[in-house]
Amino acid sequence: MNQPNPAIVSQSAARRLPHGALLLFCLAYLLPGFLGRDGWKSADVSALGFMSELVQGTSAWLHPTLVGLTPENSALLPYWLGAWCMQWGPAWMPADLLARLPFALLLALAMAGSWYGTYYLARSPRAQPVAFAFGGEASPKDYARAMADGGLLALIACLGLGQLGHETTPALAQLGCTSLLFYALASLPFHRRTSIASACIGVVGLALSGAPTLSLLFLAGGLLIHLLDAPANTDERDTLPVQTAAVLAGCALLSSYLSLRLDLWHWKVEIPQASWAEFNGAMQLLIWFTWPAWPLALWTVWRWRRQLFSRSISRHLALPVWFVAVTLGSTLTTSAPDRTLLLGLPAFAALAAFALPTLKRQVAALIDWFTLLFFCGCAFTIWVVWIAMLTGYPSQPAANVQRLAPGFEPHFSALAFAIALVATMVWAWLVKWRVGRHRAAIWRSLVLPAGGAALCWLLLMTLWMPLLNYTQSYNALVNHTLEQLQPSGCVQTQDLGPGKIAAFSYYGKLQLMPLQSQARCPWLITEPRADLSAPTVVDKSQWTLLAQVHHPADGNETVLIFRRIQTQ
Fold first, then answer.
1. pLDDT tops 80 at residue 416
2. What is the C-alpha separation between 90 and 564, in angstroms, rounded?
């Protein structure tokens, strides 16, 4: 017997977003950040360095290295994808742009997986809205489509997706595979063969992207939910739940075998410290990274609690809750909590979608007003700072830019200005539409949060792109260093991080070798110690300090340049 359902949705409220408008909106969020920028420090440009080594043949495909360094994340698939595109792409396209193409597709996969996952969860029998006495309630498909639109808007609105969702790192590959696995488990009762194939690809891809343990946890919990839900599910499209579980268990074994053979399983658990600073940092990350999905997700748990905590499994609640629980547990025990929390965004978005049919008008109005003030303020700030960079007025923002990015020379781009202006006008139209009489659609409360997040991201990636390239990349440091290396020749390195090595190798076109090698290069680049002195491994009888180079926008990014002492 079904538990009381809090969703009361009429057919008029179940209208969906137009296909064309939704597609254009997704493209407007997806493309900025992949186009027209350099590799950013440090994980983004580091991945580019590993891909370049694979393309040049100086690194083994099963064991990627970068001048002898191994990746921090034991992943293979992300580096393979970027390297393949760099190898097979057209010669007229920049190699770093080619490397980003598969990651743009992975973000698109994350969006699609989130939409379809929410859609099939909303098609579950226990997720359906209350039937009206005289008819007029939303039809199952229309209701599910409107909920899926809301889930996708909630995903785009999450603040943490902006930067990490546009970097060429294993985290984005993990997000794409997690979304694919989430969709597969959500659609199992409806499309058995397609779901099994998608789940196998997702779990193997997630393992090859450096998260084999998470892939097994996601799959194990999803299979258990499927088995417990199957007896209560009257849909006859999946009459073999046990056989389905057996096939997916085989995929899990394949994933485990590959992880063991390719040495992808490493101990990464870090027990969190029982301190206020640790707890406060985790809570702050959770609050801003998943905003505005997390308060809506909590509201969903509260409003649907009678189904969530009943004896019968409600897959539309249990599955996203399981994904969120696994992600949160991993976030607290990893050295990269933001990149781990990224994997929970599709599940957070699905839970947020199920809050929409239960929101009161006052709560929806509060969300709209807060969102309107927040994103209008952010967009206004971006425009004002951009104007100040070009004209020097207002003087205070212009002075702040010069102080934070000394040496930066802004320039006007007509294309960037036109795109930013059109985006701002669309935002103004969207605000006008939202405050008008279009109040029936259940996804209306997430239109402004998603639109505001997309607007601010697009403004940053157009108006502020030259400034961000200057401050967030190593190119300024590379250029200042190259001025000292005349003639350049080969360069040995010591204690440089993978980000700097990748920047010097790819953007500086330097032939780098570790100091421990037998090469006798005329130059040595190394990072200084805390007191800016040379590392003790540098032999002063062979090397003389030539220059100390600082990143103009980040004093902590410093390198020391040594010249080899010529001996007779």
1. yes
2. 40
